[in-house]
Amino acid sequence: MPKQKRVAAKNKASAKKTKPPKLGGAGKASQKLTFPKDFKWGCATASYQIEGAWDLDGKGPSIWDTFAHTPGNVVDGDNGDVVCDHYHRMVDDVKLMADLGMKNYRFSLSWPRMFPTGDVKNVNKKGVDFYDRLIDELLKNGIEPLATLYHWDLPQALQDKYGGMLSKEFVKDFTNYSEKCFEFFGDRVKRWITFNEPSCICVLGFGLGMHAPGRANNPGTEVYLSSHHLLLAHAYSVDKYRKKFQKKQKGVIGITLNAEWWEPVSTHADDINASLRAMNFTLDFYAEPIWGGKGEYPKTMRDAAGSRLPAFSEKEKKLIDGSSDFFGLNHYSTRAAGRPSATTALQCLPREIRSLWSGMGSAGKFLNAIKPMVNPFAASYFKDMDISPYPDPAGTEYTTMRWAIAPRGFRSLLNYIHNKYHPVGGIIITENGLASQEDTKEVMEADKVSTRIPFFKGYLKEMHNAINVDGCDVRGYYAWSFMDNFEWSFGNSKRFGLVRVDYETLERTPKPVAHWYKGVMDDNTLVID
Ligand code: GBH
């Protein structure tokens, strides 16, 4: 049998053997896991993924409009032109949120909707008005807003003008933009996030070219340069808030980082070091400057990248050190890491191909994206990291993104962050969730037996363990996402919502998981039966 077929047959056989994880058994008393008092429960979305109205009422184009409008970048040629049309359905959406028991809602502000050219001197009144109405509507419905200033939709004008985040000019423009937002909305918004997921922005946008602005040309420098400017923009913006607004507005401001948990594939020191390097290059890259106490990048990264990784000046170090009132964390999955090995990297290729390729739209794009990972000659962020992914343990289950379902990894990650950084203000989970296939009404009705509710049960249970057993300071949880939406380069093909969106009729239908989640939020308690 050719090797490929053998592997496929083996996968099929092992898929048959593995049953869905049992969370307790019949006859066992159900377990009630209560969360800390004042725990913040809610859900999250982002502007480009739900709003639509991409060119209405004076909005300027963002780099995601440009990226999605370029053929070959997004699966099925999908884009955010209309998606959920939240821009026109906002009042009903907020009402539905309230009906589903949401007390907290994380959304993002679209910079080019309010400032079409990116420049704060040129304000689009109608764009500001939309967010004014959204915030008022939320408060009217007893929902506390958490606003993200940047969830990936940079004004295209700033990309054109100076290369966006590749230029230090970005720092000033972002700080000015954020200042306007504090001014406009800070009387009502008491929780702010500067950037959503620096690692995705810079690694996918400037390393793999899989996200806007779609660059993969110089992954050995541009990932670092864009990250550096992003962190500076974050620090200056927080400084602005603290000095000019915080006392009066009495809010908090922080940043959201994304991280997988990288589990060492063996107890061999080389593998343990490799898994730590993976944590350094993904999470600590952005966490250490902010919470590490010195305003510096991880030593492993400085050693590996040398002068390609810019250094902070003494003044900048002071500014960035401690520049977050809480630790925002987005978490989705766990992976195995070990010492570099061409063999295991190849073994993992089927998984990378499935998840990466289906997100790349075209073969040419995909090849372009894996070049920086596999080219042994060119300097790259990936080469600097110097690890290999290893295959997941047999029997691992996956979401439809091909991300492993591994709740224990969530607990490990929370412990890692808590023990390494002890963040003031605690950790807030600003995203966690899954895509699962729900293309038909029948499948949706069967959600109780699909992966969705068990996924949340598993992850919430491990979060509870991290809090109650391990003593981690976790203060909130926002499920991703309120409704199905535009999943970036995967387009509308992946459904992350608690609420189903029919993209033909734009009808919203809460999935069974939404009703289940309401129970958890209402009682501040997770029941495992
Ligand atoms: C977030 O990013 C975004 O903030 C949000 O907009 C998006 O819709 C949502 O998540 C869902 O994707 O193949 O096992 O190595 C997600 C960040 C980075 C999480 C890559 C999963 C790969 C997992 N993702 N990561 S794995």
TrEMBL record:
Its EC number is 3.2.1.21. GO terms for molecular function: beta-glucosidase activity. It is an enzyme of class 3 (hydrolase). Pfam families: Glyco_hydro_1. Signal peptide: none annotated. Keywords: Glycosidase, Hydrolase. The active site is at residue 431. It comes from the Eukaryota. The keyword Hydrolase applies. The keyword Iron does not apply. Residues 1-30 are annotated as: Disordered. One of its GO terms (biological process) is carbohydrate metabolic process. Residues 1-20 have a biased composition (Basic residues). Belongs to the glycosyl hydrolase 1 family. PANTHER family: GLYCOSYL HYDROLASE (PTHR10353), LP05116P (PTHR10353:SF36). This is beta-glucosidase.
